[in-house]
Structure formats: C-alpha cells, structure tokens
C-alpha cells in the first residue's frame, strides 16, 4: 500500500523542517524570547502603517490570543504604539516605537542576515530547484487536502 521510499522521504522532509524550526527556536531562546515574537517583530519592521492584530494573525498563522498577548506585552514595554486605524475605527494600528525599532533590529536583523547569507551561498540553480520543488509540493498537497 505505501512505498517505503516515499514514506522515508516524507519523514526526512518533516525532520528537515523541524530542524529548521529548532534552529530558529534555539536562537529565540538564546535571546530570552519566543520564535513567534521574532516573527511578529520581523513583520512590524517591514509593514506599512496599517498593521493590525488581524494582519499579524494572517501573516504569522499564530492564534488570536497569542498575538493579543504579544501586542499587550510589547505595548506595556514601550516597544509599540497603538493608534486608531484610518480604515476601521474598531481596529488599532501597531507600529514600533523608536525603542521597539532598536530592539527589533538587535533581535531580527542578525537572524535575517544569517538566512540571507545561507541562501546566498547556495548556487542559484540549487536555490531555484529548492524553491520550485517546494512550490510544486505545496500546490499538489493543497489540491489533495482540499479534495478531502
């Protein structure tokens, strides 16, 4: 029923993804924060003015309560400002304060630089092969899951 080689390849690909996550988790712990906070800070560094909790939820895939807790904590620490949205008064825009920008640069920039350098050291053909293969896998997987 199952091809052992395919099963082994699937397991290895999951193991690789977990190894990648583990590297990011180790980096976060080294800085006394969660991997999720790194993701949120990275988004806050790069988004336009209209960044809401909903935007963070959609782009991190983190639960609403987790994002809410992070936003509350960052606000209390003076890392972010919450201002009324120009498009929806019920929502608050989230922006890094000058202190938050410095903190995000100290935490996010080194790991982003490491990822960039890692990708840059790979030959272009290998990068494209990796990206194309992952795209094909995700598209095929999504089609199968959507058909369930």
From TrEMBL:
SMART domains tied to this protein: HTH_MARR
Domain HTH marR-type, first and last residues per copy: 3-139
Q: Which domain of life is it from?
A: Bacteria
Which SUPFAM superfamilies does the entry mention? Winged helix' DNA-binding domain (SSF46785)
The record's keywords, sorted A to Z, are: DNA-binding, Transcription, Transcription regulation
Check the record and name the InterPro entries matching this protein: HTH_MarR-typ (IPR000835), WH-like_DNA-bd_sf (IPR036388), WH_DNA-bd_sf (IPR036390)
Q: What is this protein called?
A: MarR family winged helix-turn-helix transcriptional regulator
Organism per entry: Lapidilactobacillus mulanensis
Q: What is the lineage of its organism?
A: Bacteria, Bacillati, Bacillota, Bacilli, Lactobacillales
């Amino acid at each position: 029923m199952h091809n052992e080689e395919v099963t082994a390849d699937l397991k290895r690909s999951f193991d690789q993804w977990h190894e990648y996550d583990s590297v990011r988790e180790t980096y976060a712990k080294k800085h006394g924060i969660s991997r999720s906070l790194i993701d949120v800070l990275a988004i806050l560094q790069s988004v336009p003015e209209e960044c809401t909790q909903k935007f963070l939820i959609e782009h991190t895939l983190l639960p609403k309560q987790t994002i809410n807790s992070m936003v509350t904590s960052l606000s209390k620490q003076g890392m972010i400002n919450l201002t009324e949205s120009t498009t929806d008064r019920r929502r608050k825009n989230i922006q890094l304060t000058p202190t938050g920008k410095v903190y995000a640069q100290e935490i996010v920039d080194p790991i982003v630089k490491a990822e960039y350098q890692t990708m840059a050291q790979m030959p272009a053909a290998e990068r494209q092969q990796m990206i194309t293969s992952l795209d094909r896998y995700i598209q095929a997987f999504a089609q199968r899951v959507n058909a369930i």
